[in-house]
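Retro notes, item 3 of 5
We never archived the inputs for the NDP complex last cycle. Fixing that now. Sequence and ligand:
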Amino acid sequence: MTNHHRVIIIGSGPAGLTAAIYSARADLAPLVIEGEPSSTSDQPGGQLMLTTEVENFPGFPSGVMGPELMLQFRDQAARFGAHFLTAKVTAIDFSERPFKVWVRDEIYTADAVIVSTGAQSVMLGLEGENRLLGHGVSTCATCDGFFFRDQHIAVVGGGDSAIEEAIFLTKFASKVSLLVRRDELRASKIMQQRAFKNPKIEIVWNTVVDDLVGSIRLEGAVVHNVVTGDVTTLPVTGLFVAIGHRPNTDLFKGVLQMGDNGYLITQPGSTYTDVEGVFACGDVQDHTYRQAVTAAGSGCMAAIDAERWLEAQSHRSHG
Ligand code: NDP
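Structure as it came back at the time:
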């Protein structure tokens, strides 16, 4: 494999792998730099590698395990000629073309780059949190709420995300305890009112989670009140962590345009970034929908945008 590629795709979640399928089928033989297995933020396959069953991805009426789904995406891209490098990008230079991408000391060059490095949920940092992810601990109510029918569960956080998750979860759960670390919510007033009005939501003020109970599945959460110091164990079978998301954009600071929240900015209705020839798709540029299917859709858009842009470039250089 030479180190020059028509297209390099950075990241291998649903967005990156869909971009790989489409650009491979467009005969661009993309190189996917897929991330490193040992990491929780840069793992090949993205956030779905940290979930168990996915029931909302179209085409799988009986559900599919997240890692299995991503393996199928990957196999499909490989079948059409995508190459994979299991490594993490350490540096980039998009100031001139061909673009340069480093993996430690090795340089890879590309005529076009698709950025699909995704985002990660901010976690509480508790021992056992990663082990119980997908086994009671979750970061996505839309994905996992269904599994908690008639159960008592908790949501951690006091922002709009936490309230949105809590309200959604009341469709399934018998009771939702919203664990808020202060005595007020950060969420917008309208969301606060919705939470206050919902009879299934109990707001537990001034409360932080200290520990998770359960070895195979979550059986409870040890919490303490920061004002009184009281320690209790809530007998919850689900704990949804909704304390924010962080896009994986450190590599692109000062290089690609991003909002105050660190998400990459793409031109509306497209995957164009502010650097011509660099495209972005998936959660790295979407803080609104954050679904596998929407990420995959934008990955398809990025591949088509890149293909058309490359085609226009070659006409320009030949004519
Ligand atoms: P926010 O940063 O707005 O809120 C994070 C919440 O988590 C805060 O209540 C914060 O507490 C709490 N928190 C942070 N760290 C911890 C911790 N270690 N332990 C316990 N609690 C913690 O993030 P969101 O994801 O809620 O929202 C992000 C943005 O997206 C916001 O601008 C929001 O308005 C927007 N959004 C809008 C929606 C809508 O309009 N429907 C839906 C979802 C998001 P503290 O307040 O004490 O810092």
